[in-house]
Amino acid sequence: MPLIELESASFSYEGQDRPALDRVSLAIGEGEYVALVGPNGSGKSSLLRLMAGLRRPSSGSVRVAGLDASAAANARALRSVLGLVFQSPADQIVSTVAEEDVAFGPENLGLPRAEIGRRVDAALAAVGLEAERRRSPRFLSPGQQQRLAIAGALAMEGRFIGFDEATAMLDPAGRASILAAMDGLSARGVGLLHVTHDLEEAARADRVLALDRGRLAFDGSPAELLRAAPGLGLSLPPSAAIARACGLEPEPGEGAASLAGRIRRSMKSRNASSSAAPAAGAAPRRLGPEPAFRVEEASFSYLAGGADGRPALDGATLSLPRGASVALVGRTGSGKSSLLQLLDALAFPSAGRVLSLGVDTLSREADLRALRTRAPLSIQRPESALFEFYAGDDVAYGPRNLGLAGKELAARVRAAMDSVGLPYEEFRDRPSRSLSGGEARRLALAGVLALEPEALLLDEPTSSLDPAAREAVLALVETQRSSGRTLAFATHSMEEAASADLVAVLAAGRVAACAPPRELFYEAYDEAWGLARPYACELALALGGRVLEARPLNAAEVAAALRAGGGRA
Fold first, then answer.
1. Which one is the CATH code of 291-529: 3.40.30.10, 3.30.360.10, 3.40.50.300, 1.10.10.10?
2. CB 197 within 8 A of CB 211
3. Sign of the alpha-carbon torsion through 512, 518, 524, 526
4. pLDDT digits (tens, 9 = 90+) for 12-71
5. pTM greater than 0.90
6. H-helix or E-strand containing 357?
7. 119, 261, 313, 391: which has the fewest C-beta neighbours closer than 10 Å?
8. Where does residue 292 rank: exposed (0-12), middle (13-18), buried (19+ CB within 10 A)?
9. Domain segments of the chain: what residues?
10. In whole angstroms, what is the distance from residue 218 CA to residue 232 CA?
């Protein structure tokens, strides 16, 4: 008997033209590790909520451990079987102290105090939050909040856990630790359903499901998914993209060393030879000397002087050239979001100073309202900043406050929404709160673009976006950069960071390094940062020779270096 079984289950949100889930039938066995992929709005989160009994199907049935998941009488028993980590961690954090939040679920199961303590200790250790156990979740970084939400689910020690984009806001080290914890749960027989847009993560599962417009479009192995991905509108992960570019069949979750070996064997069998010089990547753009933003020995603490006080920035120094794109990278809690808030004058340095577009943010003469319009910040969880009922009205709010009205206002809103992949005619009258997490992030970005600012500050702009939407946002960012706007964006994706003019590494509240990506990810790279290199860099190091000389940053540059070297690595 399957642990989870859906039979022709459908579900619709009020006011939506089409169902979020449309006659989905599937079965998941005890201890099975399943990944769930699909575009934003395809029904992934809705499916998890039906399984957890948080939504009731409009037709069909959902059963978990033989229980009708839609029956209110089964709610308590269901929670002891199936745990859920939401896409937005704030939606499930209920306590004012981190360890008490983790204990909340076990306490409601009526467990002995000693057993609750054991579970809390183990869960906090699994997500690396032992040192934060007595802090208020309010003052944890978004990534730390996500880990706290995961700890709460782990502490329930149920038979099955659903993870909804659980690694979306984590740094590479944090992501690796959570994925390792998931592997450990699977090895102990705990069933998993991992919702993710990352096909490298999906490849860790035994089985992959893909949803498209509310319907089950694929059910098979990770290897089968890689072959089917283009037809499903899914982007290949870096390892698979490079393998394809080199004429090889992709293998799920393949590491750089393994792929390098396959490339060598493939090139050797072709007996290729050439004296061509190694291919060089695109030359870095020439940046002007004038800074758009300058941070000088800036320090900043949350709740300074209080018991919960914690420094976020400690003497950070950084100069962002006008017209440049700068990627901010670093571990969760390293100060990326705090730095962006200082640049936007939403927070102020306790020491040092910040000059934003020539304005000293501490000056009494500074027009901070005008500054925030000239360089707006799209925050990390934009759904929390959406306040107008309709999506179009939310995008119109900023331009309307600038005095725009009528046809000019409508044109501005239309252009901004269309540019982020939320067609104006389709989305303008959608309730903002009905949008998926990825759609909400794009709507928030449209809101800042509608201001037509001089600079853009973006905090994890592609987090929780499907591959197509991520590419659209990155293309939009590139368009903004080409237009001369200065861009500063925080990201945990080293592939995204490699596309910027400069990469600034934050560590313990300081700027540890700032350099062009081709320099930073090769000769200037320091493993102490706790960051992964882009996959193309790892592969170049494994291949050595002419490929390494070219210092590639992406799949196209790896393939070009191999061609230029006649296949000799």
1. 3.40.50.300
2. no
3. positive
4. 987 777 899 999 999 999 999 999 999 888 899 899 999 989 999 999 999 999 999 999
5. no
6. none
7. 261
8. buried
9. 4-233, 242-282+535-564, 291-529
10. 8
CB 352 within 8 A of CB 298: yes
Token look-up 């509240």 returns: 509
d(CA 320, CA 99): 39
Q: CA-CA distances (angstroms) from residue 369 to 345, 349, 412, 450, 537?
A: 9, 18, 20, 16, 42
Map residue 308 onto helix, strand or coil. coil
Please give the structure tokens belonging to residue 448: 């800042």
**What DSSP line would sit under 372-441, residue for residue?**
HHHS-EE-SSGGGG--SSBHHHHHHHHHHHTT--HHHHHHHHHHHHHHTT--HHHHTTSBGGGS-HHHHH
Single out the residue of 206, 241, 242 nearest to residue 221, CA to CA: 206
* 4-233 and 291-529 agree in CATH topology: yes
The label of the residue with tokens 């490079």 reads 242
For residues 13, 18, 21, 25, the Cα torsion angle rounded to the nearest 10 degrees is: 140
pLDDT tens string 497-540: 999 999 999 998 999 999 999 999 999 999 999 898 999 999 99
Which tokens belong to 400? 């309307």
Domain 4-233: CATH superfamily is P-loop containing nucleotide triphosphate hydrolases (3.40.50.300)
